[in-house]
């Protein structure tokens, strides 16, 4: 197993943990539990970001640049879709 494979596996695990802690934090039954889970969630997010940055630096996580017009088109599409949401 290469370093790239290990970091990809760890990054996937961190994403999975973030998803779980996000739900757990939202459903915390009291403030103390909420604060504890929120701190863990923040730590997991920071670790995930650090891994992402490291992999990008090494060229193992490539992000394809997008044209400005595509961003504008997607933002406009979201605005139109948002108008159809049943809540404000």
Automatic annotation (TrEMBL):
<dbReference type="InterPro" id="IPR012851">
    <property type="entry name" value="Spore_coat_CotF-like"/>
</dbReference>
<keyword id="KW-0946">Virion</keyword>
<protein>
    <submittedName>
        <fullName>Spore coat protein</fullName>
    </submittedName>
</protein>
<dbReference type="Pfam" id="PF07875">
    <property type="entry name" value="Coat_F"/>
</dbReference>
<keyword id="KW-0167">Capsid protein</keyword>
């Amino acid at each position: 197993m290469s370093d790239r494979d290990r970091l990809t596996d760890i990054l996937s695990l961190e994403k999975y943990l973030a998803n779980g802690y996000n739900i757990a934090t939202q459903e915390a039954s009291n403030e103390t539990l909420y604060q504890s889970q929120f701190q863990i969630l923040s730590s997991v997010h920071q670790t995930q970001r650090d891994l992402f940055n490291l992999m990008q630096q090494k060229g193992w996580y490539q992000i394809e640049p997008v044209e400005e017009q595509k961003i504008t088109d997607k933002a406009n599409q979201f605005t139109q879709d948002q108008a159809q949401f049943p809540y404000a």
